[in-house]
Each structure stands twice: as structure tokens, then as C-alpha cells.
Design a protein that fits this description.
The structure holds two protein chains of two kinds. Chain A has two domains: 214 residues, 3-Layer(aba) Sandwich (D-Maltodextrin-Binding Protein, domain 2), CATH 3.40.190; 206 residues, Periplasmic binding protein-like II (D-Maltodextrin-Binding Protein, domain 2). Chain A is of the alpha/beta class. Chain A is globular, with a radius of gyration of 22 Å. In chain A, the strands form two sheets. In chain A, strands 1, 2, 3, 4, 7, 8 and 9 form a seven-stranded mixed β-sheet that branches. Chain A has a three-stranded mixed β-sheet with strand order 5-6-10, with helices on one face. In chain A, 47% of the residues lie in helices and 14% in strands. In chain A, helix 3 packs antiparallel against helix 16. The N and C termini of chain A lie far apart (48 Å). Classes of the chains: A alpha/beta, B mainly alpha. Chains A and B meet through helix 1, helix 2, helix 5, helix 6 and helix 13 of A and helix 2, strand 1, helix 6, helix 8 and helix 11 of B.
């Protein structure tokens, strides 16, 4: 690689923290510079989000309710997920975070712990009834406070190639045991094909599967955190996938690579454990197999159960730096509970709403284009969404997720013990909490 | 007479006035950020209670804690060893090829020299991330045309993104991208060798090979030292190739090279304090190694000159 580039990179990295800190001022500057655009009202808010088409949804507010209340919102498009968390924390350090931010559920405790997002229980408490309990609970962190309004959710489902399942004489698994049998049966009939892969790059997928099994990774008792990453439920999930990888019943290569796209598109992999947003991913990853896939509920750990996990999903939070918290909270509540706003979010941004009544109305009356063969796609999805198990996030999910990638990446590569990898994840997460000064109970 | 008139314009202050812009820029955008990073490396966060709500998180003095943690962290050392292994492949191969190409281009019989020079140099113009992406696609058995050909020919298909071959795969990207630059540096200094030196050698009956080995290579030794110096620094700071290949394979961890670990700690784990300490250590080690090498090289040169 060009040496000069590397040298530049070095200087950047040596001063990595500095640029982050210096950047804060610059970011904050971008955050507030557009405030002058708000001539129409006395309050103008800035909103950091990565949702595509959000500006059009916000236009609805600015021309309707917002105009009446004299609250103008300006959208600033951002990078998604963890990248934005880092940016918010950096901006907050300079005291210049925007008024509103989009945050994934698992990032909320990190933001709360850094005192970056405000408690808006007083302003949005009434919105609770619009959401499933398990979803709402993620924004309260089990306290009386409310730190965000849920926007979209990612209930997990099982996607499979309907035509190939028929061709190989496979039935859709309803339990994980059947799932394993299906993987083995496929290997026997077509040794060069895989039912699916275990991806060590997708921490959120594994977290969702553990959540389905009943894992509670972070809980509190009194003033102490308890980390349960290697609890019995998670160990069961880790061992299940580890055994499948070890015996070669499924692939061990990461998802979201060119090779994975090709495997889905050519039918080398014939199923995918994913979430409600999968149609969007499949549309780009496997365009040639449109109309050949079907969706079913996630396999269960026992025949009598009916639970799902979640992979992804985000919320709208108000920052502590905002000078207009009440106005910002009012907008956050409108955006995620108002019928017109939710319809626009579905149409312009293609999100799957957290608000239960929006899950079957309007845009969700017909199946996604890619699944035109499954007319009840969204009816089924809404039913599955109701069965989502509660999740338990803590203040250092980022550390756990990072350790997952390395520990499970190595275990998947070596086809070694997944439970040992889980223990590494637990130990590193606890060590990090203790290093930061959190009290951790055994 | 001129000296008196110069004095009238304040000769003493002038150099400083000329230095001022550079000094200000250096202080603002180099010394200050590095100073702040070093300051951060002596700090840490202290959380009280559950860490929820305001005032639960404070930045406190950490002393040398971040440094002792970094030095005790086996992953940082392991990363350094991985990079060492990578460097042992990259540096000799890249510089060897660069020297070979430079000598070949400099020989009298070469045809199409400008075109060849450009062709070898061109990969250097490709940004590192793009190069790594491009090679990454070629390394993935399912999408690579190479594997398609190997399969058709019934030849074995090695997994280039695992174990030992991974080092070759990563080195290949660096060699592909860096050879051209180093070749140009060496070639330029070859061009600077006066023609009469060659003439004298030929009159003494030296063959082209002897000229290359006994005249050209010793005379471009300073350029070789320079390129070696650059290459060592570049190797220690390898970041974008493994980071770009990371999503494609389980074999590259998020902390594969020391700089990746710094990045991961700062932006993955949000611990900028530990990252600052590690960055400082890496910078110091890089400085020590590179200046140590330069001093050794200078000493040898002086000895040779004395002889």
C-alpha cells in the first residue's frame, strides 16, 4: 500500500483521541449551524438519524403539527449504528449534541451511562400503550425513567427457499432440533450445499438468538450490574451452533460478504435466520431468487413455546444537551406514534414500526415486493413481533459485541468450543465494567 | 555598506517572521493534538453505582495505569508479532522486486521503458482500501476468477484467507501497491549516477551484471536505506488492508495489528484513554526502531567513507 497514505494514517491514529475530541467542536458546529433556517418558529431542533427518507417524514411535521406548535426539526443524515453512538458521545463531550438522535436499543444504556440522553418520562409516558411491553421496556432500562421512544423493531424469523426445500424433501423446522436435522438431511442429499452459516461478524444475531432462549445478559440488583452472557440459555445456544459448525452441518463463514451474497443468490445456502427487514437485504444480495423465498416463525427450543428474539431496531432519544427537551420529546412521540407519521416512515424509509397498530395498517397490508408469493407476510410478522422475548442490555454492549467477533470468529474458524468463546465474552465484559468502576455482582 | 542597510530592516527578526506560519501550524495541528493524546493517556473514566443518570461518570487521573495495562496486554504483543511476521515477507520481497525492476529499467537494452515504468508504478496510485477490496474479492473462492480457473484445471484451491497463507495474501497487497513507489526512488538515484563511471567500468572489462552488482547497487545504497526506512514504518502501521479483509473472513481479528487494536479500543469499546496510551507506545517504538536503524546505517556509511 502507498507508504505516504500509511504515514498519514499513523499520524491520525497516534492522535486518534485528539481528532475525536477536536472533531467534537466541528460536529457541534454542524449540529447547530442550520438553526438559522428555522424562521417559522421560536424553537428549532436538530435530529441526527440514518433512516433514509427521514427528511420527507419530518417535512410532514414541519408543515403540520410542527408549524402549529412552532417547532421546526432539521434532519442531519448520519452513519448508522455504532458509528453514530461514537459521534454522539464525542459531541456530548463538547456539550454540543443535537436535540434528537436515533439510537439502537442496545446502545441506549451506553448513552444513558454517559449522561448523553435525557429522561423524557414526563413528556412521552402516555405513548407506552402504543408499544408491546418488551419493546417499551428497552427504553426504560427497567427504571421509572423513559430514555427514548421506540421507532422500529427487528423481530426474528426464519427465511427459507421454498422451492429448494420442496426439491430436497425438507420440511420447515419448528424446533431447533428439527433445524439441526434439516441441516444434516440437506448435507446428505446435497453435500455442497448448506442450510445456512454461523456468522461470527454479526453479534446482534447471536444476541437475538440468546434472547429467544431466555438469556438476560445484563441485569441490575441494587447498585450492582450482573452480567449473564454465559448463562445457561446462552450456553445452550452457543453449544447448538458450535456443534453444527463442528460436524460440518452448516457453513462457518461470515454473512454480508460477496461470497455470502452469491451463496444466497445461487442456492448454495438455502435458509437464513434473520429479522423482519430481511426482504430488503435479500433484494440486493439475492436478486435472482425473488419470489422463491418464504418466511416462517423462528424455530423454538421446545414444541410448546412460541417466542422470538430481535435483531436490530432503533429508537428516537432526546439529548441532555438539548435546550428544548419538551419540544424534542413532543416531536419524538409524534414521529413514532402518529398514524400519518408512521405511514410515511413505512413508505419513505421502509422501516418496520415498533408501534403495534401500525404493523398491519397501510403500507403493511400487502407483502414486500420480494415476497409477493407470501400474501400474509406482514400479518404473520405482526404476530411474531408480539412474541418477542424481553431483552436486557447493559452499559458496555459495545465491548461484548467486539469480543464476540474475535472469540467466536476464532472458534468458528477452528471449529472449536463455542461455550469457551462465550466465557471469553463474559469475562471480557465483566473485566471492562470493573475497569470503568461499575460494581459487578457475581 | 550592505550590512548597515540590512540592519535597518531588522535582520534578526526576519527569519522568525518567516518561521512563524509554519510554527503556528505545527503547534496547532501537530504538537497540540499529540500533546492532548498524551494527556488523555494518563486519564481514565470512573463510574459510580449503576452508572445511569447524570454525574455518574467522571474522568479521573490514571497515572501510568493505561500504560501498564497496554504493556501487559498479550493481544497488543501478539499483534506486534503478527505484524513482524508480515513485515518479514513484505519488506524483503517489495524492496527486492523494486531494486530488480529499477536495475532492469536502467539497463541499456530495455524497450518500452516509460510504459513499463508507469505500469509498475500505477498500483501505487490505487488507494490502499480499494486495493485491499479488489484483492479481497480475488481471494474469496466463491467469487474469484482465479479459483474458477483452478477448479476447471482440477488444481488444488488453497484457502488464502486462513492461517499462513493469510500472511501471504496480506503481503501480496502491500507488495503490489508499494513496489512501484520504491522502484521509482531507486530508479531515480540510478539515473543520477554519472555516465563516466559506467564507461570506466566497461573499459576495465566489467560485464553488465558486474556493473549492476558492484557499481550500481553500492551507489544507490542511500536510496535503499531510505526505502527500507519507509517500509519499516509502513509495516509497523499496517491497518487498512487487514481492516478491509476483516469482514470477509474469521481469521482476521479486530485486533490483528497494533493499530487495529488502538482503533478498536477507541471506537469499538469507547475507551479513548487506553487507546491513547497504546498509540503513544506504538509511536515511541516506531521512533526508536526507525531512528535506531538510521543511526546504524549512518555509522556504517561513515565507516566506509573513512576506509
Amino acid at each position: 500500500m502507498p507508504i505516504t497514505n500509511r504515514r498519514r494514517l499513523f499520524f491520525r491514529s497516534a492522535a486518534v483521541c485528539v481528532s475525536a475530541a477536536l472533531g467534537a467542536t466541528a460536529l457541534a458546529a454542524c449540529g447547530s449551524e442550520d438553526d438559522s433556517e428555522a424562521e417559522s418558529g421560536p424553537v428549532s431542533l436538530t435530529y441526527w438519524t440514518w433512516t433514509p427518507g427521514m427528511d420527507k417524514v419530518v417535512d410532514l411535521w414541519n408543515k403540520g403539527q410542527g408549524e402549529k406548535d412552532q417547532i421546526t426539526v432539521t434532519v442531519k443524515k448520519q452513519a448508522s449504528g455504532d458509528t453514530l453512538v461514537t459521534k454522539i458521545l464525542t459531541a456530548h463531550k463538547a456539550g454540543k449534541a443535537p436535540d434528537l438522535v436515533q439510537a439502537e436499543y442496545q446502545a441506549l444504556p451506553t448513552l444513558v451511562s454517559n449522561d448523553a440522553v435525557a429522561d423524557i418520562a414526563g413528556e412521552v409516558g402516555d405513548a407506552k400503550s402504543k408499544f408491546a411491553d418488551g419493546v417499551w421496556q428497552q427504553t426504560t432500562l427497567g427504571t421509572d425513567a423513559v430514555y427514548a421512544v421506540p421507532q422500529d423493531i427487528g423481530p426474528m424469523m426464519f427465511y427459507y427457499r421454498e422451492d429448494l426445500f420442496k426439491q430436497y424433501g425438507l420440511t420447515v423446522p419448528t424446533t431447533w432440533e428439527q433445524f439441526a436435522e434439516t441441516a444434516r438431511a440437506l448435507k446428505k442429499k446435497a453435500p455442497d450445499k448448506d442450510l445456512t452459516t454461523f456468522s461470527a461478524s454479526d453479534s446482534g444475531l447471536f444476541a437475538g438468538l440468546a434472547q429467544q432462549a431466555g438469556a438476560k445478559w445484563w441485569t441490575t440488583s441494587g447498585d450492582k450490574w450482573k452480567v449473564g452472557i454465559n448463562d445457561a440459555a446462552s450456553q445452550k445456544v452457543a453449544k447448538f451452533w458450535g456443534d453444527l459448525v463442528k460436524e460440518g452441518a452448516i457453513d462457518n463463514q461470515p454473512m454480508y460478504t460477496p461470497a455470502w451474497n452469491k451463496a444466497l443468490n445461487t442456492g448454495k445456502q438455502i435458509a437464513w435466520v434473520s429479522a423482519v427487514w430481511a426482504p430488503g437485504t435479500l433484494t440486493t444480495a439475492a436478486p435472482d431468487t425473488k419470489g422463491k423465498w418464504a418466511m416462517a416463525p423462528l424455530p423454538q427450543w421446545s414444541q410448546s413455546q412460541n417466542v422470538s428474539g430481535s435483531w436490530g431496531g432503533s429508537s428516537t432519544a432526546v439529548t441532555t444537551d438539548s435546550e428544548h427537551k419538551a419540544a424534542a420529546a413532543k416531536f419524538a412521540a409524534w414521529l413514532n406514534t402518529d398514524d400519518a407519521a408512521l405511514q410515511a416512515l413505512a413508505k419513505e424509509s421502509g422501516i418496520y414500526p415498533a408501534a403495534t397498530n401500525a404493523q398491519t395498517s397501510g403500507a403493511f397490508a400487502t407483502p414486500p415486493d420480494y415476497f409477493s408469493n407470501q400474501s400474509d407476510f406482514y400479518t404473520k410478522a405482526a404476530e411474531i413481533a408480539k412474541t418477542t422475548a424481553p431483552s436486557a442490555w447493559g452499559p458496555n454492549v459495545n465491548v461484548a459485541y467486539t469480543t464476540f467477533k474475535d472469540a467466536f470468529g476464532k472458534a468458528a474458524k477452528d471449529k472449536s468450543d463455542f461455550v469457551a468463546a462465550l466465557t471469553t465474552m463474559q469475562d471480557d465484559t465483566v473485566a471492562d465494567l470493573e475497569k470503568q468502576g461499575f460494581e459487578v455482582s457475581e | 555598506m550592505t550590512s548597515t542597510s540590512r540592519k535597518a530592516y531588522g535582520v534578526k527578526g526576519t527569519p522568525y517572521a518567516f518561521l512563524l506560519p509554519a510554527t503556528i501550524l505545527f503547534a496547532l495541528f501537530f504538537a497540540l493534538p499529540i500533546g492532548y493524546a498524551i494527556y488523555l493517556s494518563f486519564r481514565k473514566v470512573k463510574v459510580s453505582g449503576l452508572g445511569l443518570g447524570s454525574g455518574a461518570r467522571k474522568e479521573v487521573w490514571a497515572g501510568l495505569e493505561n500504560y501498564t495495562d497496554a504493556l501487559a496486554d498479550s493481544e497488543l504483543v501478539a499483534g506486534a508479532l503478527r505484524v513482524l511476521g508480515y513485515g518479514c515477507i513484505v519488506v524483503p520481497v517489495m524492496l527486492g522486486l523494486a531494486l530488480l525492476f529499477a536495475l532492469m529499467l536502467d539497463s541499456e537494452k530495455v524497450r518500452l521503458a516509460p510504459f513499463t515504468r508507469l505500469a509498475i508504478f500505477l498500483p501505487y496510485a490505487i488507494p490502499g482500501v480499494v486495493a485491499a477490496l479488489l484483492w479481497g474479492f480475488l481471494y474469496l473462492p466463491d467469487v474469484s476468477p482465479f479459483y474458477f480457473v483452478l477448479e476447471r484445471l482440477g488444481l488444488p484451491q488453497p484457502d488464502l484467507l486462513d492461517g499462513g497463507p493469510l500472511y501471504l495474501a496480506l503481503s501480496n497487497i502491500a507488495v503490489w501497491g508499494g513496489t512501484g513507489f520504491n522502484m521509482i526512488v531507486i530508479y531515480t538515484s540510478l539515473q543520477a549516477i554519472p555516465a563516466e563511471v559506467y564507461e570506466a567500468a566497461r573499459l576495465d572489462g566489467a560485464t553488465p551484471l558486474q556493473i549492476a552488482l558492484k557499481i550500481k547497487i553500492p551507489m544507490v545504497a542511500p536510496s535503499l536505506v531510505l526505502t527500507f526506512f519507509f517500509s519499516i514504518i509502513a509495516t509497523l502501521q499496517v491497518f487498512s488492508e487487514p481492516t478491509t479483509l476483516k469482514p470477509l473472513t474469521n481469521s482476521v481479528s479486530t485486533t490483528w495489528s497494533p493499530l487495529m487494536k488502538v482503533y478498536q479500543d477507541a471506537f469499538g469499546k469507547g475507551d479513548i484513554y487506553a487507546a491513547a496510551a497504546q498509540a503513544t507506545i506504538i509511536a515511541l517504538v516506531t521512533l526508536l526502531l526507525s531512528f535506531g536503524f538510521l543511526r546504524a546505517a549512518n555509522r556504517r556509511n561513515k565507516q566506509e567513507a573513512a576506509r
